[in-house]
Amino acid sequence: MINAKQILKENLKDETVVVACSGGPDSMALLKITNDLKDELNLKIVCAHVNHKIRPESDDEAIMVEDYCKENGIFFEYMTIDNYNQTNFHQDARIKRYQFFDKTVNKCKAKHLLTAHHGDDLMETILMRIVRGANLKSYAGFSEKIQNKTYTILRPLIPYTKDQVLKYTKENNIPYSIDNSNAKDDYTRNRFRKYILPKLKEEDKNVHKKFYKFSKTLEMYDEYINKDVQKAYNQIIKDKTLDIEKFQKLENLIQIKIINKLLEQEYKNDLSQITDKHRQLIHKVLTSNKPNQEVSLPNHKKGIKTYNSFNITEEKPKSTYQIELIDYLTLPNNKIVEIIDNTEDTSNNTIRLLKKDITLPLYIRTRLDGDKIEIKGLNGHKKLKDIFIDEKITKEERDNWPILVDSNENILWIPGLKKSKFDKQKDENYDIIIRYH
């Protein structure tokens, strides 16, 4: 493992370093390699182990790793995960695992986190993302070195295959455990590992080096393009809101990269849930002439296009209500509707009604599909949806906009926007005045 040692020597010196160690052959080999350089590089080594409590062997594996650390003067940090989000176990486990690593690194004031990802892992990741669909950066797999907040993640085993790491572990009598679930065909990564990688290695035993070169090349091009992307991103996105008119003037490649960056900012560690389909839908919406559209996204989020702006928000359940108007109401949009005695106002914020023309009691409710209003001064009805579009009311505002109806479901008023034929002039007979403010 000469190259791995060289990578460590080039990056570590006089510091505390955290090694993420599952107890498998890869991470135990990395722990051994790092420990061999402890004196030469003046390192304080901390082993961070996560017990996922999924398999019967998990507790024994934790004891094995802890015993190895005691024998070799390595500090041992330990975490047990008892509960998971069952809808996406692997994603939830990864998030919790890296939260623990992050906490351990900061607790120990370490400069580096070492992980045991090797060449086979890189090939699997690249192939999975090509099949699944991703962006240029994601097609590169993962980097040998990446800056993460206050520390650097380093992966010294990337130059090696799984077989080379396993051979090193056996030759050096390093204890390790095997996760038998890695042999099952249930998971996509396992299928690539069992059936695809062996065929590629038959073609070229050093194919992992070709993938590594491919990864580095994509990273290089991605870094170059990102200089222009960042400049454009700063110009068209303010407070997480994208200016569509400016976006549409950009080159197609820059548009796609900006969409990726927007998603990276929003999803961070959950970015693996974003597929090529999501990116294509967002791009289609942003380049369309339709003024109001939505894109459903993972984790109960949605992309909302409202005329010239686009942003990603939490997908809140649509709020609906119907409340009897007796004298005074404070609405969910923080506006007030009240019955008053007198006013000079004749705007759309006030309506005058005659009781004998309508059926009491009156209600304030949210809109329903197909709602129509007979607007004062016009012949026929008009859909509320069309009125909202004409007035450039966002879809989110429409869902919460108050509507005044009588007991026969006649729409009397869209407060602040339009009044119906039931509205009376100041010089006509009326016995109800309602104000919206």
Output the keywords.
437 residues; alpha+beta; Uridine Diphospho-n-acetylenolpyruvylglucosamine Reductase, domain 3; 15 helices; 22 strands
Condensed summary:
With 437 residues, this protein is of the alpha+beta class.
Q: Can you characterise this structure?
A:
The chain has 437 residues and is α+β, with helices and mostly antiparallel strands. It folds into three domains: 2-206, 3-Layer(aba) Sandwich (Rossmann fold), CATH 3.40.50.620; 239-314, Uridine Diphospho-n-acetylenolpyruvylglucosamine Reductase, domain 3; 322-436, no CATH class. Helix content is 41%, strand content 21%. The chain has 15 helices and 22 strands. The chain has helices at 2-11, 25-36, 38-41, 58-71, 89-108, 119-132, 136-139, 162-171, 188-203, 207-236, 244-247, 252-267, 276-286, 384-390, 395-400, and strands spanning 15-20, 43-51, 75-80, 112-114, 145-148, 151-154, 237-238, 241-243, 292-297, 301-306, 309-314, 322-325, 328-330, 336-340, 350-353, 362-365, 372-373, 382-383, 403-405, 411-414, 418-419, 432-436. A six-stranded mixed β-sheet has the order 3-2-1-4-6-5, sandwiched between helices. Helix 2 (25-36) crosses helix 8 (162-171) and helix 6 (119-132) crosses helix 9 (188-203). The longest helix is centred in the middle third of the chain and has 30 residues, at 207-236. It is elongated. The mean pLDDT is 91.
